[in-house]
User: What shape does this take?
Amino acid sequence: MRKFKEFVIEKLILICGIASIFFVILIFLFLLKEGLSVFGTVSPFNFLFGKSWYPISEPPQLGILPLILGSLLVTLGAAIISIPIGVGCAVYIAEVAPGRIKEILKSGIELLAAIPSVVLGFIGMVTLVPLVKNIFHLPTGLTALSGSIMLAFMAMPTIVSIAEDALYSVPKTYKEGALALGATHWQTIWRVILPAASSGILAAIMLGIGRVIGETMAVMMITGNAAVMPNSILAPVRTLTATIAAEMGEAVVGSEHYFALFAVGIVLFVISFIVNVTADLFLHKKQ
Amino acid sequence: MRNPHRTQNIAFFFLLVTTLLIVVPVGLIVVIIIQKGLPAINWQFLSDVPRQGMRAGGIFPAIIGTVYLVSGAIIFALPIGLLAAIYLSEYSKDNPLNRIIKLAIVNLAGVPSVVYGLFGLALFVIFFKFGASILSGSLTLGIMILPIIITTSREALESVPQSFREVSLSLGASKWQTIRHIVLPNAVPGILTGTILGLGRAAGETAPILFTVAAFYLPQLPKSIFDQAMALPYHLYVISTQVPNVDEKIRYGTAFVLLALVLFMNLIAIIIRTKFRKKKKW
Amino acid sequence: MVTFDIKNLNIWFESTQALKEVTMEVLPHEILSVIGPSNSGKTTFLRMLNRMNDLNSNLKMSGEVKFEKEDIMKIDVELLRRKIGMVFALPLPLPLSIFDNVAYGVRMHGLAGKTRMAEKVEEALKQGYLWDEVKDRLTESAFKLSGGQQQRLCISRTLAVEPEVILFDEPCSGLDPISTAKVEDAMVKLKEKYTIVLVTNNVKQAARVGDRTAFFLSGELIELDKTDKIFTAPKDKRTDGYIRGKFG
Assistant: This one.
């Protein structure tokens, strides 16, 4: 009797063990199921590279290039801001900061990671957006730049914590060896520790950027949501994620618009899949 | 001639600046929300329904909705996540299947939150015909927090010394008895930490509930899990962007309640973690 | 009837061979000491007897081990481990109270209900020569005991599930001489009721308590004989060298 009970439990454990695989596949399948229909109306090429997104005009124009470029522009901006700051902060925490301050800084970073994106979006709207508007004398502060700055903040916790782990896992002997040769602490960091941790740091950057590409609420609240080809970082843009979030509520189930939004979901899923698998490879490459 | 020590001082200065560039704004964000949000908080704000097109009244239905959603998510995700963690920590061997499971978890953690929303819409709302409901929203959030629960629970299980397992097995206890009576009880604090972090994440997410549950304005409370509900993060989004002329106090107040809720859960998780570390018996 | 009958036992960890063609017997109610330098395969040998080696999936074996005439691979592993108890190198109390440590195995096997449990625990602690020291503090954490007490607690815990054989894996390696003496005393008395296999790094210990002694080197059983014979007139030069080396 006990044996039978344990047999059942162990099977249940196995099933739950592979549940993650099941859910990833399920998500992808359901995106495909709803999203692929759009290619009856528009070819994959025109979908990805079409320059106009007018999903409710007659006939609908379903080109997501402006959205892709919007996402890219915002992401690029966020990357330029968050990578140097994030990696710098990771080095500071891992190597320079003394014990107690280190713990405080780490809690600060954890705090940032915990703030819901809608709260960051709200704060961005009431503080950052007017600031950008006034500094650059713009008609509106809801721009790609505002989005980039806010998203940079959302990428930083990921970048800092994973990069710090990578720096921390560099064997102590490397550091001691370099210091024993008379190198300064900074020379040791720059020439020995950073190169040794490079694949982990690269993974940190990729995962941080992955977070940015997938971020929805904050970006929808502060980038202005203009689904046009972006021509300046100081103009409103619309990202892939914001498009889904903003339009799905109004799309009629089973319409071209509905299918197209799921197809955008497929694009996002594929991007995040590639980013995560690559980052995982980098993380497991080290040593 | 370059002076290596001067270079070092300059470099460390810049590292400090990058750190301050993160930490100071974080501090500012929290301070601003507390400063402007706290005055809005009173019993009426917390216990009343929104009135005058959400321009007055309170946020009670949104708080209750979030509590329901988060509870539902955890009821779904904790058993599956915990058993998955047990599988990874106690049963899986170093083989390709194990690699694929870990990769799947990483991917599940990386799927954009709005894509979870789409998935929940397609699977729960439409395919299973649950409609936009607390059930659909909870399940969607549940799958989203699964990776957090699996990862933290697995770490907790793996931190239980291998020797305890050997002792238990050497006494003739079965593998499951060993897990049930030795491994799990000693991993409880870590599992609890992960669960609370998952709760906090579920409470703060907006995109996954946009099309699966969230009601724009629904002054009465939900009666069953098949009802729509308001939720705090969505409510904040709505009153910040969709409704014109909402008093700033109400917006900050809502942001404050949401932030306080999420940070409170994180704080509990941190307290459990540190307390347990100090108390560790081995 | 011999307790263990081992024939041509080979064990490999991945590509390295840990045991080579070991053939020997373990007799009832004896203390068999197993000595040898580290990596001689003696612990692998010990962990074979109660199939703790099963936990290592990289391990392969050939040959045969019979416990009371039955192939151990065919016996239910939980029953086998109940009948063949094990005491580890370091004292390893479970993170439970003293009482619950001893009761643990009994509960897992359902050997006693709530009413009989206290009796069982007392009996086991008495057999492990610990009862008098802990009878007033049974609900305290086992980690509060001294190292020697912890090791005797582990012995009691093993005895509580009523084994026939007890395997000791260098049980005194972490203990001071006084605690060691107490554990050795316990072992000698236990042999009345149980068969004991003692793996030890301490040659003197083997000489003190063993009825017979087996000498392992690089995975091979070099010599197995009465303890006084091994220590006074070993047949093999390597045995002699090892014992002398240790005696300094």
Remarks:
- The domain at 65-285 of chain A is CATH 1.10.3720.10 (MetI-like fold).
- Residues 71 and 239 of chain A are 4 Å apart (CA to CA).
- The first strand of chain A starts at residue 53 and ends at 54.
